[in-house]
Every structure is written in C-alpha cells, then in structure tokens.
Design brief:
By secondary structure, this protein is an alpha/beta fold. The protein has 2 domains: about 230 residues, Rossmann fold, CATH 3.40.50; about 45 residues, no CATH class. It is about 45% helix and about 20% strand. The chain is built from 11 helices and 8 strands. The chain has an 8-stranded mixed sheet, sandwiched between helices. Strand 3, helix 1 and strand 4 form a beta-alpha-beta unit. Helix 1 runs parallel beside helix 11, helix 2 packs across helix 3 and helix 6 runs antiparallel to helix 7. The two termini are about 20 Å apart.
Length: about 290
C-alpha cells in the first residue's frame, strides 16, 4: 500500500508491508544533494516486503519546493525537517494500527550528513532535549547505514591548492576585483564546484553552508551498529572518507563496518547507468537489516 504525505511542500512516500506482516520496523531512506527519493525505488521495493519504508525529497530537491530565500538553512534545518517528517509518517502508521518499535536510517551522501547530525551532534541533541518527536525518533533508532556519505573533510589541500587559495584571497579578491570585475567573476566561476553552479540562487548559500560544516566530531558519539557502504571508485566522497568514519566510530567504542562495492562510484546503490551496483547493494543492506 502506498501513501502520499505532504510535509513542507515535499513529496513523501512510505510503503506498507503486506497485511500479513507483523513488522514493527521503519526504514527511512535519505537521498543525496540535488538528488531525489525516487533513486531509492528499487531498494525500497525489495526491502518493503517485510518492513515499513519511508522516503521523501528534501526541500529544494526532487519534487519539493525550495526553502524561503535568506532562510539561512543548513544541515541543522534539514535535520529538523527530517525529524518532523518522520514523526508525521509514524503518526500515519499508528493511525492505521501499525506500531513502530525500531527505526533504521539509510542515508546517501548529503543524507548521511543529516544522519550524523541527528545521531552524533551533542549540541543538536541538547537543543532538542525537550522535543518529544526528536527524543522518540532518536531513542528508537537501532541501526544506521551511511552510503558514500558526506560530512568529513579528510583530504588535506595540496601545496598548489594552498597557493591558489592565497592568491585568490589576497590578490584576486582585492586587486583583480577592483580593476577588472568582469574577469573576477570568471575567476569565481572557475573556482565553483559543479553542484554550486547547478544550484539556484536560493540554494547556493545553503550549499556553501552545508559543505563548510565538518561533522567529524559526531562520529565519536555514534554507539549503535553502523554499516558504511562505499563505491570503490567514488571520487566525490572517496573510500578514504569511509575508512576515516569507520575508524573514528570504532575508536570511540562504536560498532562500525565498511563494505566497499567494486567498480562502483558515488551512487553505489543505484543502477549501472549511474555507476552503481544495485543488486550488490541490496544484498549487503538486507543482510545488515
């Protein structure tokens, strides 16, 4: 059975398992930056045979509308939205006599950022200590899955990159900007990432805020079973990021394991057209669940 749930203008779906199922587990799939929940469709349909499944499009992505201009959104606001949306989905299930005793979060790339914030950020947890929705969700999360996750800045800049940054800061932004504004705009464009260039004017400052927040400190606070699934050829968030996450979680007494999918890229969970291995991913995920 498929329901439509509207939350802050985002399109939210959850699939109910067969009526004969007694499952009390809800699995939530969170997509990556400028992606959409539809990419999880094959995985959700497979896992939904014996679990409640939920996914939605983040504001400004997929089928959802953008946050208001100058809203100041960042990872915290997307995490707030996630908590609120999951809470509404659980309420809908409960209204249909479906009780939820266990929640599993699965996040790809940016979705992983949100999971790190929700689970491991102590300041975020402190801010929400009186939030009953947050407390219910966090207390019922039994496992998490981070897929080619973003959130850590492990790669140190090269000497060339450092020199380029110094040139931009002390020469281009002062001298070039003053005498040749048009050329300076071209320099800015060349320094911008593909994701930044593709973003709307509303989403550009949000993107900058999101990628500049380092969530490595959250890793030591993750104590629940954590599966890290990575594409061997991922160039956006390389396997070294996954290794760092695994190391930091386990060093702090957590329980994390990294599985690398051969010949797959950043979308390791998707089909071959996106550089993934969907069947391998589903097999790994279902074994963990």
């Amino acid at each position: 059975m498929e329901y439509k749930l509207d939350s802050l203008s985002s399109v939210s779906d959850y699939l109910d398992p067969p009526s004969s199922s007694t499952s009390k587990k809800l699995i939530v799939f969170l997509h990556g930056w400028m992606s959409n929940s539809e990419l999880w469709r094959s995985t959700m349909e497979s896992v939904a045979k014996s679990n409640h499944i939920f996914a939605f499009d983040f504001p400004g992505m997929g089928g959802s509308s953008e946050p208001e201009s100058d809203s100041g959104w960042g990872v915290s606001e997307y995490t707030d939205l996630t908590v609120n949306t999951i809470s509404k989905a659980i309420a809908k299930l409960q209204a249909n006599n479906r009780e939820i005793e266990e929640i599993v979060l699965v996040g790809h790339s940016f979705g992983g950022r949100v999971i790190l914030k929700l689970i491991g950020d102590l300041s975020y947890s402190q801010k929400n200590k009186a939030n009953s929705e947050y407390q219910f969700i966090k207390n019922h999360i039994s496992k998490i899955v981070l897929v080619d996750s973003a959130g850590v800045r492990s790669r140190k800049p090269t000497v060339k990159q450092k020199l380029g940054s110094l040139k931009y800061k002390y020469f281009d932004k002062t001298f070039v900007k003053l005498i040749n504004p048009k050329y300076f705009k071209q320099i800015q464009s060349n320094r911008s990432s593909v994701d930044y260039k593709a973003a709307s004017e509303v989403m550009k400052p949000i993107f900058v805020k999101v990628i500049n927040e380092d969530l490595e400190h959250c890793l030591s606070n993750i104590k629940i079973p954590t599966l890290l699934i990575w594409g061997q050829l991922d160039q956006d968030t390389p396997v070294s990021d996954g290794l760092l996450m695994e190391k930091k979680i386990n060093e702090a007494g957590g329980d994390a394991a990294l599985v690398v999918i051969k010949n797959s890229g950043h979308y390791s969970f998707a089909n071959k057209s996106l550089g993934g291995d969907e069947l391998a991913f589903i097999k790994i995920l279902e074994a963990f669940l």
